[in-house]
Each structure stands twice: as structure tokens, then as C-alpha cells.
């Protein structure tokens, strides 16, 4: 596909894109970050990272974001911070 505002998919490309999307939809997970953003005073990516870690029930989180690490610890997740090295 070319760039620019006038670039359009062909009918075959459109069908293939729809097929690929349909194949991936079942792999998507909704991550509830809004509650964490409020409860942990997290914003943006930090809330999403924490929500995703909790959703997959990870055992460990690593980040150079000290407030994210603190929030993860409060939620019972072990933190391996590169800042502690």
C-alpha cells in the first residue's frame, strides 16, 4: 500500500484485512486500567502496564518507574527494579 491520503485498499486487500482482523479478535484482552489510574494515582501507560500485569497474574514486574513499582508492590506483585541495582 502506498502512502498519502488518497491511498485506498483494493477489494482483495480489504477482504484480507478483514480476515486477519477477525482471526485476531479472539486474542484480544480488555485491560481495566481506569480504576487503577484512580486508586493508584497512575496515569496513562503506568496504569495500563499495571492493569496488564495484574490481568495476566504475573509474578514479577520490572520498571524504572518508581511509582509503578510501588503500585505493583502494593498489589502484591514482586518488583525487580533496575534502579535497585
Number of helices: 4
The helix content, as a percent range, equals: 40-55%
Major sheet: order of its strands?
A: 1-2
Tell me the Rg in angstroms. 19 Å
Give the overall shape, derived from the CA principal axes. Answer: elongated
Mean pLDDT: 83
What does this structure look like?
The protein has 85 residues and is mainly α. The protein has a domain at 30-84. It contains 4 helices and 2 strands, in the order H-H-H-E-H-E. The protein has helices at 11-25, 34-39, 44-55, 66-74, and strands at 60-61, 78-79. A two-stranded parallel sheet has the order 1-2. The radius of gyration is 19 Å and the shape is elongated. The relative contact order is 0.11. The mean pLDDT is 83.
Features:
mainly alpha; elongated
Summarize the structure.
The protein has 85 residues and is mainly α.
Fold topology:
Blueprint: H1 11-25, H2 34-39, H3 44-55, E1 60-61, H4 66-74, E2 78-79
Parallel strand pairs: 1-2
